[in-house]
Design goal:
By secondary structure, the protein is of the alpha+beta class. It has a domain of 79 residues: lambda repressor-like DNA-binding domains (434 Repressor (Amino-terminal Domain), Orthogonal Bundle), CATH 1.10.260.40. The chain has 13 helices and 7 strands. Strand 5 and strand 6 form a beta hairpin. The longest helix is centred in the middle third of the chain and has 21 residues.
């Protein structure tokens, strides 16, 4: 009876999640045949695998075993369960592990037939959590999230072994200053805005950008060349009947947009936080 119940439950959960036996097998590092045997009642998962299955499907082990009524865990409950029994150091590292696992997990669930839909659909977190803003500041970890009509952003920073000593390295200072000097110009922000907008094609000329931003072409060329220098753009020479033309190419730079978004939140964002813990964020120096 027990084997039958868990087998039926596994089929029900997999169907509800919309995944195949192969997807389950890959996620749990077992064979397709093993998952098939679990679901047809030929064999049952051992205790450790029951725990992994419960985490995978977002239910309690009692629910999976048919010992309690179904109650799907909320995202918060699922994450909290991952931190049970961990000390402070393990918890900080687990938080970073979760953060790094989100996007690979997301892309792992996108099949080829969904690629076109995924590439065109626009999604805004504000529909789910309106104007959410949080700030967690701690000696070992900084976490900031913002969800508004202007900016949807999540960033995590952990203490590094060099204690940010590179900030005092002359050569690295020059590179960092180069990027911030470019972003400190109003003209540069206007150019960056346009080449990231839907009104601009992936490939463009400085003349085209100048006409659409009302900025002198010579200034646009300087900005675009600086973007090339920091790795945000690329360029090729097009040989046309009227002569050679420099054609720039930009598919968008998420790091640059993130830097600008963080600056926007720092200087223009609301001071109110839905969740805030302001501890010590002096990560430089000391142990």
């Amino acid at each position: 009876m027990y084997e039958c119940k868990i087998a039926e439950k596994l089929v029900e959960l997999r169907t509800s999640k919309g995944v195949t036996q192969g997807d389950v097998a890959q996620s749990l590092s077992v064979s397709n045949k093993t998952v098939s045997k679990w679901e047809n009642g030929t064999s049952t998962p051992d205790v450790s695998m029951v725990v992994e299955l419960a985490k995978y499907y977002g239910v309690t082990t009692d629910s999976l075993l048919g010992l309690s009524k179904d109650k799907k865990q909320s995202t918060k409950e699922e994450i909290c369960s991952m931190f049970e029994g961990l000390d402070h150091k393990e918890s900080v590292l687990k938080a970073f592990e979760i953060e790094r696992s989100i996007v690979p997990a997301l892309f792992g669930r996108i099949s080829e037939k969904d690629t076109d839909i995924y590439g065109t659909e626009e999604m805004f977190p504000t529909d789910i959590s309106r104007f959410y803003r949080s700030n967690i500041t701690h000696q070992n970890i900084f976490k900031f999230a913002s969800s508004s009509e202007d900016v949807n952003l999540s960033v995590m920073l952990l203490k590094n072994k060099t204690n940010f000593s590179w900030m005092n390295d002359a050569d690295k200072q020059k590179g960092i200053v180069k990027a911030f000097r470019l972003l400190s110009s109003e003209d540069a922000l206007s150019v960056i805005y346009f080449i990231h907008s839907k009104n601009c094609s992936v490939r463009f000329t400085a003349d085209y950008v100048a006409r659409n931003t009302d900025i002198e072409e010579s200034r646009v060329v300087k900005i675009l060349d600086e973007l090339v220098d920091i790795g945000s753009c690329d360029w090729v020479t097009a040989h046309l009947a009227e002569g050679e033309v420099k054609v720039y190419e930009c598919y968008g730079d998420g790091i640059v947009l993130s830097l600008i978004s963080l600056a926007f939140e720092k200087m223009c964002g609301r001071n109110y936080y839905n969740c805030s813990y302001n501890g010590n964020c002096q990560m430089i120096g000391g142990k």
